[in-house]
Amino acid sequence: MTHKRQLPEQTATHIYKRAAVKRMEGSYGRNERDGRSARNAEQPVERPVVLQRVVTIPEADPSAAWNAFARRQERLRRTRTKQPQLSSVQQRVAPRTFAKTGSWATGGRMKSMQRRVSDPLSRSVPVRSGRRSVRRGFLWRLVSLIAGLIVLIIALSFTFTSSAFRVEQVQVVGTHNAALVQAIQRQGVQGQNIFLLNIPAFEAQVENLPLVHSAQVSKQWPNQLTVTVQERTPLLLWRTGRETYSIDSDGVLMARAINTPGSDALPTVTAPLTVIAQGNVKSGKVAGGEGIQVGMRVDANEIQFAKDVFERLPKITGINAFQLRYDGTMYANTMDGRGTQGRSKGSYVVESQDGWKAYLGGADDTNSLENRLLTLKAILDMAREQQLSLASIDLRYGLRPVYTLK
């Protein structure tokens, strides 16, 4: 580490340009110089001068600097070992004063003084312990809870007893029938609290009306209801004895024909039959349909079968003037429409103006209506070719139709 290394000598060179110094060369060359100067009076002569700079390194020992640094480190180390090292806790502890403890500080950290209580049960809780604040917070919470309950009771009482939340108006949407609108508005919901109103029960009550197919009720705060209804569409007319009723595809007797708009354009089924009423009305046979009421439900399959007869018979046979009658027993259900609708046992009869009758059967027959009407057309064509006078045609036996002559 202390080995001395001889560094080579360094030489720096630089070229400086200076003006040429006129020198006296003697008398012999004066004439020649004068002649040369006369020729070159306008052109000065310059000569380069080369100067050298020599840099030398003093002969010094590099280990001397390192020894000085080592001596300084040793002095610092000795100084640190002489001073006592205090812990972080000892550095933070300060001696207590007489004003805080009542006695002079001896030095170092003093131990905490414990209080002596003669009777632990009779000792008092100091104010700084926080016991009084806990009791005060509990009382405030209890008072706040009681006040909140009182406010809640007053709000509920106002909500359920105030007239501001009682239903005053029922708006009906989806129909222009004034009688139906009045019937819905007279269901007894006016004056009831809008919060306590049973919406599903009110919807079912509206759907029980004969003219209503479906209903949806919505609340309009604070005291209005909106009822959106879908009316039933009459499919045909059902004439029983003294009255004629409009009936839809579900078999519901909607209303009397005189109260049904557009009833003149609907086909009519005549039914001088025996009706058995079931459900809420006492059961019993009523001749001529005198016990039928608006709102009763009959077999929907039979109604759809009659509608198909009115549509397909003129297309297949070419007969437009005829009368359709129902011969049999009709079971009418008077329940609210969610029960089983009435089943019927009977046969449809086509009465022609030519005097013959065709027994088509009912909707439950295995033979389709299309086949029965094609068979009827074939028999009529045969009678027309053979000039036969038909009295009756029975198509209720499938592939074995029977006809009689007058």
UniProtKB/TrEMBL annotation:
Biased segments, Basic and acidic residues type: 23-39
Keyword Cell membrane found: yes
Domain of life of the source: Bacteria
Keywords assigned by UniProt, alphabetized: Cell cycle, Cell division, Cell membrane, Membrane, Transmembrane, Transmembrane helix
Biological process (GO), any one: cell division
Ranges that cross the membrane: 138-160
Gene3D superfamilies reported for this sequence: membrane protein fhac
Official protein name in the record: Polypeptide-transport-associated domain protein FtsQ-type
Organism per entry: Ktedonobacter racemifer DSM 44963
